[in-house]
């Protein structure tokens, strides 16, 4: 198995500084590592992006560890690697199965805040469709995001709406979100019921409330590792009951994915987000990074369920 990292934007032969710890850790544990030049990939120069990668004599599995890719760019990466006899661990359909929130919602809907969404083209064609989508939230507070990401570090301006029936505030936040996401907006807009989580701190820069959250990493639908979500929070290592999340994991059409969970103020554990595991960040803690790759190496030969 190989691990594919993003190269430095200015030096295709060096790893992106944000993935340096991961690459060095993976190499130290015996993984083969390669580099993809993301800027060329995004510019549709696939062959150029993969120029440093040698063709394999036999079909090999590859895990991409890098920045998020649109489904279109992931498809290009997948097909480009296949020409080198290398196959990403998740095919394009498996990538969007967890990368795009609406795809995972039917599986997790009973264990995550109520959510509704609109394709961005539908919003542009009829902005009033937004009011129809949020009507069932009545006066509840809601959050907005696209199919992949929120702007949670711009909490009051482009993420949180205290009253879904307040059209003025709704317009303010939605329009800010669309404008600031720009061409990076993924798929459409998701409206999510805001449920208060157990607050443990505030983000030192944005003031966003930080909650008791964990990232669960799954490999071949088996729990691989439990990670502290926030580096800014000191965890007391309360162990949530993960049984239901492990059961749900068996339903995902993905070989490597993440489930983020958080504790509510009334003590329940909810699913906050689901993501493709190749583009799900790991904390900067060297011990956790090493444990992730050790667990991956130990489990990678187990058969898929």
Structure description:
The protein has 305 residues and is α+β, with helices and mostly antiparallel strands. The protein folds into 3 domains: 2-88, no CATH class; 98-102 and 197-299, D-amino Acid Aminotransferase, Chain A, domain 1 (2-Layer Sandwich); 114-193. The chain has 12 helices and 15 strands. Strands 1, 2, 3, 4 and 5 form a 5-stranded mixed sheet that branches. It has a 4-stranded antiparallel sheet with strand order 6-9-7-8, sandwiched between helices. Strands 13-12-14-15 form a 4-stranded antiparallel sheet. Strand 1 and strand 2 (11-15) form a beta hairpin. Helix 1 packs across helix 12 (286-299). The longest helix has 15 residues, at 167-181. The two termini are 19 Å apart. The model has no long low-confidence stretch (mean pLDDT 93).
What would a concise description of this structure say?
The protein has 305 residues and is of the alpha+beta class. Helices cover 32% and strands 27% of the residues. InterPro entries: R2K_3.
Helix and strand arrangement:
Blueprint: E1 2-8, E2 11-15, H1 20-28, E3 32-36, H2 38-42, H3 46-49, E4 60-65, H4 71-82, E5 86-88, H5 92-99, H6 101-108, E6 115-119, H7 120-125, H8 129-134, E7 142-146, H9 155-158, E8 160-161, H10 167-181, E9 188-193, E10 199-202, E11 209-211, E12 213-219, E13 222-228, H11 243-249, E14 256-263, E15 269-276, H12 286-299
Parallel strand pairs: 1-3, 1-4, 4-5
Antiparallel strand pairs: 1-2, 6-9, 7-8, 7-9, 10-11, 12-13, 12-14, 14-15
Domain ATP-grasp: 140-296
Protein name: ATP-grasp domain-containing protein
InterPro entries: R2K_3 (IPR025643)
């Amino acid at each position: 198995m190989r691990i594919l990292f993003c190269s430095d934007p200015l030096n295709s032969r060096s790893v992106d500084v944000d993935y340096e710890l991961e690459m060095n850790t993976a190499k130290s544990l015996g993984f083969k590592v390669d580099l993809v030049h993301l800027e060329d990939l995004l510019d549709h120069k696939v062959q150029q992006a993969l120029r440093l990668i040698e063709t394999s004599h036999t079909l090999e599995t590859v895990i991409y560890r890098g920045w998020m890719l649109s489904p279109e760019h992931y498809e290009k990466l997948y097909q480009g690697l296949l020409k080198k006899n290398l196959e990403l661990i998740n095919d394009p359909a498996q990538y969007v199965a967890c990368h795009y929130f609406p795809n995972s919602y039917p599986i997790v809907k009973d264990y995550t805040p109520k959510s509704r969404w609109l394709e961005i083209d539908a919003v542009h064609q009829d902005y009033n469709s937004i009011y129809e989508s949020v009507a069932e939230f009545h006066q509840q507070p809601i959050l907005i995001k696209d199919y992949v990401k929120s702007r949670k570090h711009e909490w009051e301006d482009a993420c949180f709406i205290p009253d879904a029936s307040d059209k003025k505030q709704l317009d303010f936040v939605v329009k800010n979100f669309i404008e600031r996401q720009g061409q990076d907006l993924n798929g459409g807009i998701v409206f999510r019921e805001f449920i208060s989580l157990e607050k443990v701190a505030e983000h030192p820069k944005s003031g966003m409330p930080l909650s008791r959250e964990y990232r669960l990493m799954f490999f071949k639908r088996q729990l691989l590792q439990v990670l502290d979500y926030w580096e800014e929070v000191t965890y007391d290592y309360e162990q949530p009951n993960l049984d239901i999340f492990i059961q749900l994991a068996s339903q995902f059409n993905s070989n490597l994915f993440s489930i983020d969970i958080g504790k509510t103020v009334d003590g329940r554990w909810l699913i906050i987000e689901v993501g493709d595991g190749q583009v799900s960040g790991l904390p900067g803690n060297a011990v956790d990074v090493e444990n992730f790759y050790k667990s991956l190496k130990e489990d990678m030969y187990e058969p898929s369920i």
